[in-house]
Amino acid sequence: VFIAQSRASGSHRDVEDEELTRIFVMIPKTFTEEDLREKFKMYGDIEYCSIIKNKTTGESKGLGYVRYLKPSQAALAIEECDRSYRAILAEPKNKSSESFEYDYYSNNMRQELRGNTLPFCMQPEFCSFEKPETRIQEPVSKRLSVVSRLPFIQEQLFALFDLVPGLEYCDVQRDPHTNSGYAVIQYSSAASAIYAKYKLHGFEYPPGNRLTVIFLEDGNDSSE
């Protein structure tokens, strides 16, 4: 912020300035570029807005870029915008955008799970799942089945589910015919498994790939 403010009065823009004028934000998937511009124009003069879309379906990934004319404006947007946008300075363009998106999602997921919060569900437009209206009706257990259309990397999946306390093991398998991912997760308590399913079912990991998480019968009395 101090660097950005020191350059606020100058009109010269070098490569370093370019890295200080572009911000990366998490947005509702219903947002258009005009919606994005409307939300962030109050912080300064916007050069352009862009929304990251799935290359196959053309659907928004719920992520976008906003580039301002001055670093001070980008700094102000990061400081003043609603925390639900998770605004940060964007990585330089020479870094792989997919790698940056992956890191961004992973870091935010870690913060959300550790904080035991659901910030996006304060606003219905951000919710990617529906909260149950009644108590859980399905049989629960300490074991979960995780299915994905993409193959899993053992270390990454373990790290993701290990954010919920009580992980005992993560067994990753791969179907050689479909190349899809399948894994069995077990926690030390049903409470941890319920929380992991609630937080991670439907979660995009990596971005664009939704996880399907269901309970697996473990032979224990689920009434407890």
TrEMBL record:
Residue ranges annotated for the RRM domain, each copy included: 21-95
Record's keyword annotation contains RNA-binding: yes
Alphabetical keyword list: RNA-binding
GO molecular function: RNA binding
InterPro entries for this protein: Nucleotide-bd_a/b_plait_sf, RBD_domain_sf, RBM45_RRM2, RBM45_RRM3, RRM_dom, SLIRP/GR-RBP-like
Source superkingdom: Eukaryota
Protein name listed in UniProt: RBM45 protein
Lineage: Eukaryota, Metazoa, Chordata, Craniata, Vertebrata
